[in-house]
Amino acid sequence: MGETTPYYIGLMSGTSLDGIDTVLVSFEEGSVQLHYALCYPLTNDLRQQINQILSPEWRGSLMEYGHIDQLLGLQFAQAVNELLAQAQIRPEQISAIGSHGQTICHAPTADMPFTLQAGDPNQISEHTGITTVADFRRRDMAAGGQGAPLVPAFHRAIFFNPETHRTVLNIGGLANLTVLNMDSTAPVYGFDTGPGNTLIDQWAFKYTGQHYDKDGEWARGGTIHTDVLEAMLKDTYFKLIPPKSTGREHFNLGWVAKKIGHREVAAQDVQATLTELTAITISQALQEQAPQTQELVLCGGGVHNRYLWERIQHHCPNVKLLSTADLGADPDWVEAIAFAWFAKQTLEGKPSNMPSVTGARGERVLGGVYSA
User: Fold this and answer.
1) Alpha-carbon distance 150 to 191, whole Å?
2) Are the C-beta atoms of 367 and 340 separated by less than 8 Å?
3) CB distance 27 to 341 below 8 Å
4) pLDDT by residue (tens digit) across 198-249?
5) What b-and-e string marks burial along 76-99, b requiring 16 or more CB atoms within 10 Å of the CB?
6) Could you tell me the domains of the chain?
């Protein structure tokens, strides 16, 4: 790795809580180079604390939240230091860290809209010696936007193709689409379609003890319960017109229980139904908002769920499904890479939100800078 290469580090901790995605990247016009990546595990104790605070029933204290905020900041810093050690890179070679943080609450439709991400960036900067950029979402919300999804700006910079109508599908905890019309003058738009992996993973953990349904095999062996699926599809979120975004505050196991109601449904059948819910809400959103799509490019952890992939293809038979790996970007690291790119944009004084996606009044430079 050359001494003059401007390196950036991206940090992402999603709703799956499987670890801190940590990447070392450099950028050239229209391309990204991934030099090193690791998933730094969260401690079981911290994962349990985060799950408690994410529960809609949580009635904890500000002291508890502050404790988690600081612990997460320290774990983010440890993830960065481990990456530097493994990649044999010195802190002074890094231009900046872009940290998404751990979303604790995302409430874009509240009377006073807000979003809250834990993982104190002061701790990251202090314990790595690297300038850190964080708190990307709230400036967009202050400008009247949803604060999400943010990654469409990065998708546009990296995945746009003037020869095809391409839509990028990120299947993380939530699923979101970025619609990239081949006409470069057409506005980019994107939105959360609804649950991605979050309900699938939570249900799998509750009944199998596994943090995810490997290859979707447990769901594949179940039967889709049409009554429950229809009840789920009646949720008002799916009827909203973009811009829109959501989170675990809305889609959680309490929500699943309400939709099942008094029906007796086997746990494996619920898993099959939840997987179908993700697939069908993605396909419906695509058909309603981007019917011109020729290529659907997948990234995020959901890429590895073969059964989910098959169900999406079943509902979108005329669309070619690809992985971002086919375009030179490892699907497991795209979101973390995006936040490295956001840090670069911020330091260069460039906007990184897209008003056509979030609904903000205009472009804004996002994030606060915490100098080394």
Assistant:
1) 9
2) no
3) yes
4) 999 999 999 999 989 999 999 999 999 999 999 999 999 999 999 999 998 9
5) bbbbbbebbeebebeeebbbbbbb
6) 7-146+333-370 (3.30.420.40), 152-327 (3.30.420.40)
